[in-house]
């Protein structure tokens, strides 16, 4: 927004330095007047004093000293003023030089150049701390913008795929009217269901990122049981045992989002498991003023360097399958990470030595009096 022109910080500091220096000089001259000149006689006649040895000393009076002292005092004050202005201007320029670099970096960032860094050198002081904080902010902004661009590109690709398949099926049906329509309808239904699932996941991810949801006490153990009951048929078809252990674990947040988080974790654990004879264990418990949800599953070994990338949208690990029964949309762990972050929690992914993954979610507990008392701490 437009602002009225004003004096720069350098000019203000210069005037402040000169003013303080001039004030110090005036105070010094005042001290001389109070403690020296005012003790001299005010007579116009010559002052005569007699010592103990009878020697007569002739000295000037106050008027004589004022006539000699005033011009010198005025010259000293004028010198202090000029020296304060010049020295203050130079000193203020050197002090404000880091702000010029920070302002230049801010203007570059406003133009869209987030890769610019100040990288200020020198001793640790307020300006260095400000520059380092600004560099950290630019680094985080650059990372988030790059992540959003990748997300938009991947989302566009994922949304385009079912639409392109639908168009291909419709064109094939148009070119071959004798083709079996039941097969076409079934394939179109599958493709559209995947597109709907992807759109709903994107909307849910946006809702979690925005944090616009009501918060209430939620028992994670009940959500774990509900998710396990929903996914039990899938686990039985894949010959995977699904167990829920632990006790009451209260958290505060959106029950719908937390249920989706637990469901995604359990579904991923069932789908990305051994072809047969795999296990999935869901455990909930209170711990250290919060609640812990652990989902552990068997499965193929995961490289340690791959695990941190699993929470990125549309990223799928090596050998992590996509079955026709549960193809997924590539947002499972990304949505889990977003929900956990929106609830001020932490998400830890640890590959198991024998294969599979251990996912640990830690969420803060509700304030005292807003939920039932939690059980004993988890050991």
Q: So what's the oligomer here? A: single chain
How far is the N terminus from the C terminus?
A: 58 Å
Are there runs of 5+ residues with pLDDT below 50, and where?
A: 318-327, 373-379
Shape: elongated
Q: In percent terms, what proportion of residues is strand? A: 5-15%
Largest sheet, spatial ordering of strands: 4-6-7-9-8
The number of helical elements comes to 7
Structural class: alpha+beta
Cα-atom radius of gyration: 39 Å
* Secondary-structure element string: HEEHHHEHEEHEEHEE
Quick overview of this protein structure:
With 379 residues, the protein is an alpha+beta fold.
Structure description:
53% of the residues lie in helices and 15% in strands. The protein is elongated and about 125 Å long. The C terminus is likely disordered.
Helix-strand layout with pairing:
Blueprint: H1 9-35, E1 47-50, E2 56-59, H2 62-110, H3 126-175, H4 181-210, E3 216-219, H5 220-237, E4 240-246, E5 250-253, H6 255-271, E6 278-287, E7 290-297, H7 332-342, E8 346-351, E9 357-364
Parallel strand pairs: 4-6
Antiparallel strand pairs: 1-2, 3-5, 6-7, 7-9, 8-9
Helix pairs in contact: 1-2, 2-3, 3-4, 4-7, 5-6, 6-7
